[in-house]
Amino acid sequence: MPLSMYQASVPPFMQMLAALSGVLEKAETHAGARKIDPAALLQDRLFPDMWPLARQVQIACDFAKGVTARLAGIDPPVHEDTERTFAELRVRIEKTLDFLRALNADQIDGSEGRDITIKLGGKPVTFKGQTYLLHFALPNFYFHCTTAYAILRHNGVELGKRDFVGKVPGL
Questions:
Q1: How far apart are the first and last CA of the chain?
Q2: What is the three-class DSSP state of 126?
Q3: Rounded to two decimals, what is the model's pTM?
Q4: How many CB atoms within 10 Å of residue 164?
């Protein structure tokens, strides 16, 4: 059976967001145990021209909900970027997961050839659904999840590959 657009999008987004939530929980515990101001971790970045941790998490959530909504032909939910704590970021992830759980395969499957138009650099760019998912959206989503992980690992949070990958279906 060929891989469906739903299977290539919703389950991977859900797996990685759940893992990201666990990584944030470990970071909050790390900060408390070492008397580190959580805000210092949330505002840390790998390099001055990169987004801080909190924004990396927000963007990862935005990709997961925005991509799946566009593939389903519906408007993505809007989440204001107001999170300032680990707990608030985990709530944002949970809201995103709730949205993903509400989608079904019938809404997304068959979207391979659907025109998806987004703005890049203020200009509209149109992709076919499959190209959008596989060559633009997933790489961007994984980039932001990886960067969030790397910021925390760089700051001494004891994380490993299992934390990054999360629960793998079937294992």
A1: 21
A2: strand
A3: 0.96
A4: 18
Q: What would you measure as the largest C-alpha separation in the chain, in angstroms? A: 52
Q: What domains appear along the chain, each with residue ranges and CATH number? A: 5-164 (1.20.120.450)
pLDDT in tens, 68-123: 999 999 999 999 999 999 999 999 999 999 999 999 999 999 999 999 999 999 99
Listed residue (28, 25, 103, 26) closest to 64, CA to CA: 103
Token duo for residue 15: 């797996």
- The answer for residues whose C-beta is within 8 angstroms of residue 15's C-beta and 6 or more apart is 165, 166, 167, 168, 169
The CA-atom distances, in angstroms, between 149 and each of 22, 34, 46, 57, 111 are 11, 19, 11, 10, 31
Q: Are 129 and 114 in contact (CB under 8 A)?
A: yes
